[in-house]
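Risk register update: the risk of archive-format incompatibility is retired. Evidence:
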Amino acid sequence: MPFVVFAYLAVQILIVAYHDFQTKKISNKWSLINIGFYVFFTLIFPEYYTFSLETFIWPLGFFVAGFILFLMKIMGGGDSKYLASFYLLIPSQFHEQAFFSLAIATVLVGGSVFTKNIMKNADLIMTAFKNKDIKLVRSIFGKKFAFAPVIFISWIWFGWIIKEKILF
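Archived output:
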């Protein structure tokens, strides 16, 4: 992977993560920018980026899974669109490793948020279960958290894992 692409994506996701953390929204402009860069990268880095089915498998998977999670009110629409377009900028030979890093970061951060919620609201949770108040339980655990910072954490970890394959 070209270093310039890795560094650009690190800076981009840091900016997106900051805005997502502040507003809990990811603008569609980032997805459009990523699609534009994907087309550009196919022209200047044809050894890494191609218009092939293999390139689109993971992004389409994220888009479909994100849409389902959006319908279930688990994930925001901007998160899934951004993640799908972000994956277009990861050379396809790295998709699986990038996904592994993202999955681990999601479990660690999500697990931490979940545990913090339980510890912070233990009495309220016990009351909700005693009263069989499912709405109260959902209000405790139904809060969205910014996902772009998780993507950033996974990207840095991913970079560490593939550091020998990043071309300077």
